[in-house]
């Protein structure tokens, strides 16, 4: 049922009519929470069976109306436009941050796969048992590329050379470390055609996993928007517009994953 309100009608003059012959004090149609003052006149009202937009002076409110039958009173819980915008911004920010991290994870996984050319990133995932504590190799050693087919690992603490050598051997990176007591040298072997194709499949699978993660982030955001709609903080049209914007962001990050995948695939298949 739609209720028409006059702009000149004070809030306190809205009452629920009682179908009775007995003189009885009228009950209020709406009860406001959050210390909302109703002594002033309402500038504008728009209302339907379960949603009301209220403006008092320069302040605009989006109240959630919960009206029930029987002995329970109707309640209007107000949420300001600023609060709603803050919730929307928070969802959008979380989406972009999570999608950006997903792309970086995919890129990091790609970097750890050797392509026949030496790169320090090939040793990114190696962890060393350093005095009983597992630490990343790059945090305790400088890794460089003297040429396109070799890596040089120079530890900050020479006593860690043995531990670094052991970690490289057990990491299955496909390279044999040469420890001369000062540094560790690694020769990057050339990939065979079959190995390149095999690695290309692995990279393709990792790219697809990244896309699945992006779609899951989109799904979570849609659920958050639908929750705001159920709470009557967003209209159905608002959710449609936000969903459309969310799809554009999703497509953007899908393209980023495709870009890094194609670049890595090209490196793998180039002899």
From TrEMBL:
<dbReference type="InterPro" id="IPR036191">
    <property type="entry name" value="RRF_sf"/>
</dbReference>
<protein>
    <recommendedName>
        <fullName>Ribosome-recycling factor, chloroplastic</fullName>
    </recommendedName>
</protein>
<dbReference type="Pfam" id="PF01765">
    <property type="entry name" value="RRF"/>
</dbReference>
<dbReference type="InterPro" id="IPR023584">
    <property type="entry name" value="Ribosome_recyc_fac_dom"/>
</dbReference>
<keyword id="KW-0175">Coiled coil</keyword>
<dbReference type="InterPro" id="IPR002661">
    <property type="entry name" value="Ribosome_recyc_fac"/>
</dbReference>
<comment type="similarity">
    <text>Belongs to the RRF family.</text>
</comment>
<keyword id="KW-0648">Protein biosynthesis</keyword>
<feature type="coiled-coil region">
    <location>
        <begin position="211"/>
        <end position="252"/>
    </location>
</feature>
<feature type="domain" description="Ribosome recycling factor">
    <location>
        <begin position="107"/>
        <end position="269"/>
    </location>
</feature>
<comment type="function">
    <text>Responsible for the release of ribosomes from messenger RNA at the termination of chloroplastic protein biosynthesis.</text>
</comment>
